[in-house]
Amino acid sequence: MQNNPLNDLVLYRQKFTSDLIDQPTIASMLQLKPTQMSSMLSYIFGEKGGEKVSILNLITGGLGRTSYVGSYAYDWDVMIECEKIVTIVDAQWQGAAIGATDVPGINGTPITIWTAEKFWETGAILEFDDKDYTARVMSSPYQDGHYWVSVLQVADGQAESYIPPSLLAKGCQLSKLGTAYEEGSEEGDIITYQSPTKLRNYLTTMRIKWDITGSAYDSVMIIEMKNPTTGQKTKLWADYQEWRAMRQWYKQTERQLVYDKCTVRKDGTVMIKGSTGYPIYRGAGLLQQMAPSNRRYYTTLTASMIREFLLDLSYNIRGMGDRKYVGLTGEMGLMEFDRVLRAEASALGVTIIAGAQFITGTGQNLTLGGQFTTYKMLNGIELTLKHFPVYDDLDHNRKLHPVTGKPLESYRITFLDVGMRDGEANITKVARSKDREMVMWAEAGSFVPGLGFAHDKNLVRSNGKDKATIHILGEIGIWMKDPTTSGELICDAEL
């Protein structure tokens, strides 16, 4: 037995014997139960011991949060509830352009404005960019060429009140505050509608392969995983090369789920082609899917910055329920986060819950918990911070902090809205089908992994080499259904 470097992953090394021939390898298990095996491997590589190379896979596919879309592209609608803001195209007072020293609207005199859209009716109260100033729509807007004309009156009813000319300039904006009508009126404001925003993303076809020689195939590893909560054990076996390849596969797909950038252009064409001549579809990763306005930069992290940022993000979540966030960050982000929250926890009204397990449950009934610290903040916002090794990897994050010398990416904190929307997870792993989520097969030579060596001239093999080649293919991606509710704080230290 080797010394175990992987904590709860116990590795045994022994000779291949006949009583193990019929035991399933990772490859054959994936062929029999691809969905269950993919979830189990996400669990192993995401949670146990020193592996921890598949955290994002774990909190999506590992928890059964995988969507199957049946195509290389998938569309979805996002309804962003927001009040319509209308831009002023032109404005006049007393039949003329408004000058800088004018007092438009004084003594109840009418103000005429032009807008590109009609979003109100008689009786609507409109507020200007400065909310202290409001005006009432006095008659039904009418069309004048490409624009709509509205006649307004200062809404506070005071003779000396007027609207500052700077608020009526071209490009200034109006929003609807409410309505006001007289006794016995028969008019009413109109209801405005908005169509959902349709988004489209693509799956990325990822592949790796490796060779196993006939001599190397004699040696296998038994990997025993023990759930620290239930004591249940799960055993998978494969040779060391296969285990390393599986680890590399999960580490590589984890990076791509985060950093992939879509290769499909606005007109639907793809410029990059593979050796077969077919286009290479590459879907947008997690970071590219986030709304750009939800990405902010800091030099020194503060508690108020974290609190206000999460509050801003949570404003985009409809209703007050299920404001749950997982914060993915590197070692330095954990240190910064701990520093500011410990200093101001009491001032922020933060409740700290520590010591719970990250994963509870058994089999496919796994629940996301908090093996690390969970912060329950005001307004029902709950943040669970999780170390994300992808951000610490020096091989891939070579821009360093000028003071600490650690990767700048290690300071990145990615806040993911992992709540449920109408019974569906906001962030899921996505695949073309259950069978295409992770395909694994052998190109046989002198032996077939899991079945052993050929001893019959009638056994047909694909080549005459004393080896086998194993292939893994996945047509997968990450799906952020509402891109407005997740965001990032990024360290902006000068290089």
How do you describe this structure in short?
The chain has 495 residues and is an alpha+beta fold.
Textual characterization of the structure:
This protein has eight helices and 31 strands. With 495 residues, it is an alpha+beta fold. It folds into two domains: 266 residues, no CATH class; 94 residues, Elongation Factor Tu (Ef-tu), domain 3 (Beta Barrel). The strands form eight sheets. A seven-stranded mixed beta sheet has the order 16-31-23-17-22-21-18, covered by helices on one side. The protein has a six-stranded antiparallel β-barrel with strand order 4-6-10-8-7-11. Strands 2, 13, 26, 27 and 30 form a five-stranded mixed beta sheet that branches. A hairpin with a 6-residue loop joins strand 7 and strand 8. Helix 1 packs across helix 2. It is elongated and about 105 Å long. 32% of the residues are buried. The N terminus is likely disordered.
